[in-house]
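so im writing up the methods section and need the Nitrilase and fragile histidine triad fusion protein NitFhit record in one place, dumping it here so i stop losing it
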Amino acid sequence: MFMAMASSGKKLVAVLQLTANQCKAANFKICESLITDAKKRGAEMVFLPEGFDYIAESSQESAAMSEPLEGTTMTSYRDLAKRLGVWLSLGGFHLKNNCDSRMHNCHVVLNSAGDVVATYAKTHLFDVNIPGKVSLSESRYCIPGTKVAPPVEAPVGKVGLMCCYDLRFPELSGLLAQKGAEILTYPSAFTKVTGEAHWEILLRARAIENQCYVVAAAQAGQHNARRQSYGHSMIVDPWGAILAQCDETPGIALAEIDLERLRDIRRNMPTQSHRRDDLYHLRTAPEVLDESTIEKHDFGGHLISKKEVFFETTLSLAFVNLKPVVPGHSLVIPKRSVKKFNELSSEEMADLFYVVQRVGSMLEKRYGVNSLTIAIQDGYDAGQTVKHLHVHLLPRRPDDFEKDEVYKELESHDKGENRRARTPQEMAAEAVELRLLMYGQPTGNKAAHGTG
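--- predicted struct ---
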């Protein structure tokens, strides 16, 4: 294996390679020894492969052996990180899910104090059948993650979290680079067949196209009668050069992370700024928040209490109406204060109408209708009275309005005293009901999925 020692101003990282089996204690002992060695050599962060905790004999055994983050295995690694004063990237931890017989394949990051600072549940599951060579169905015992974790601020740089099969989906690494990642990490257990064909090519491609360091710790060797991994844990620089690499046996490889070199490469070839946002977009799906982030939201000078909000994403929110035209009349707004529709960014627009669609579907079910009026009064002459872009959603019934009379009602419903303003208690009670319908359970109780 190739190794390097850190020079001034640069940070040393290590990839750890092992041949895990179903014995957790034995696997931990091997990892403890290799992590200690890496720390002695100057590594500030050590990256472990997928399945570092164990690789079981069967999918049923794998799920049965899974643990919560508070379990014995993660506690041991937290104690180790604190004792050695080293950051750990623990890829592919078998995270127990109390609501499902399956588990999450979870990438966990610990800081040098032993704290869990980030988690990411693997989003792309390895369901592959290459006749006579490879047959694995990860979805039989794993639940796919639902979030892209933001890059982690670590002493060695901003680290983007992924896991094994994620390597084949460049959109994910592109999103992380867009969000500021400087190091992309792929803890893996590539099969012998797929590793020989694609491992190095894919890792170098991800490094080059994103102008990031790629750190990929891997399993190696024969785990049991049914599983064999390729090995060749690797550290690649942003130009695509392999800085350090293991062979096919347990061990470690070390290399420098030189962020100044990364910045030079990005300055000399600024590919991020050359992207054609007018032709294509790279963005995550809207992120639904479990509960309102602040006590009051500004809505064109009017304060909306969190008690009136029944659905929220990072960019948009939905709330009940002070003077509804019909039962269920709700509003969806962008969080950023904009007066006109053309002021929205493409990301805000996509998020806003994602929320409109979700809320509209819920309102149809709640009020037993199959039609909605969805309207934007885009400017004063269109009837806008609150100077903050908002979308009206009105459940509609047959003959509730003559022809287009509903639009006249919208123009006048919040003017004067022709319609009674509801009390805060009435609005809060409706928001509670709609919130339950949107989330399916009381908010504030995150599922134990470890997606960060």
